[in-house]
Amino acid sequence: MKIMTVFGTRPEGIKMAPIIKELEKREGIESVICITAQHRQMLDPVLNIFNIKPDYDLNIFKPGQTLTEITTRALEGLEEVITKENPDVLLVQGDTTTVFAGALAAFYQKVKIGHVEAGLRSGNLYSPYPEEANRRLAGLLANFHFAPTERNRQNLLKEDYPDEKIFITGNTVIDALKYVIKEDYIFDIDLLNNLDYENKRVILITSHRSENIGKPMENIFTAIKDIMEKYEDVELVFPMHLNPKVREIANKVLTNNDRIHLIEPLDYAPMANLMAKAHLIVTDSGGLQEEGPTFGKPVLVVREETERPEGIEAGTAKLVGTKYENVFNELNLLLSNESEYNKMANAVNPYGDGKASERIVDILVNSGK
């Protein structure tokens, strides 16, 4: 059985890596790896961490690329690879433009499609943009829907997908963490090694969503800065996204405090180990909503809606929006009220047990029998 994995960004690479490792273990499976390199700079370190060597690298990244350019370059490159390899199944993961292009390219060649992390829905086609549309479009073409949770399965059933094509697996991001977390982890950045994680409360923030750029992001950063002035035992670490607009807002707002640390983006392993050491997380990222609870870290989600409501319902995460007063008040609550903090920190992670990759490969193997 020949199974091709296609991915192009850092989050896809992280979540696809455990599946690739599982495919490599199995007899009777030929694994073919094709990357689009939609995000070149942030994807390559993930390949190194997991020792993944792609069979095909389309290398489509160009500075300032548009969604149309990503889609067309990926489609053209994938057509050639799929025609040559003729896989039994092509796997895509998540909701990037590579995912949509990968599913469409496979559909054009009448190759079966497996959609990993299927069934996530925010309910707003333009938020997150373009991810909500990408995952819905990929779902329309998929033959296997690997849903992380029961909620994801229900979303697909409501859209009339056949139940026998939907499989609840857990999320492979939990599988990936076991490869990189170390108790005695040493960071390449001295600052992170020298932070006093025992006596200081370290807040980890990430923010990059296009819909937050502008006033929403200014609100978030201003609230965090004001919290820093209220609590002297708090340190802030912000690995800034490469987007120059994000950096401009961060450098304008998050200033004049030596406990605020604006650093370059972190590779996956140091980011995961920093999450494990942090006190709490503020993020508009999808992946961190899933990873934070694994470490028992409260996650404040600075978005107006989320396609990951399971964490909200379980109490591991809280959707706080982007208004100044909401972000300030929720941070203030967690920093001032130990019982509220513990309630979130001790909630059960709804995203799985770290065996999602095994389940996905088992399903694919059994489908070919």
Automatic annotation (TrEMBL):
Alphabetized UniProt keyword annotations: Isomerase
EC nos: 5.1.3.14
Matches recorded under InterPro entries: UDP_GlcNAc_Epimerase_2_dom, WecB-like
Enzyme kind, highest EC tier: isomerase
Domain UDP-N-acetylglucosamine 2-epimerase: from-to ranges: 21-364
Keyword S-adenosyl-L-methionine applies: no
UniProt KW Membrane keyword: no
UniProt xrefs under PANTHER family: UDP-N-ACETYLGLUCOSAMINE 2-EPIMERASE
NCBIfam families: wecB (TIGR00236)
Protein name stated in the entry: UDP-N-acetylglucosamine 2-epimerase (non-hydrolyzing)
Top-level taxonomy: Bacteria, Bacillati, Bacillota, Tissierellia, Tissierellales
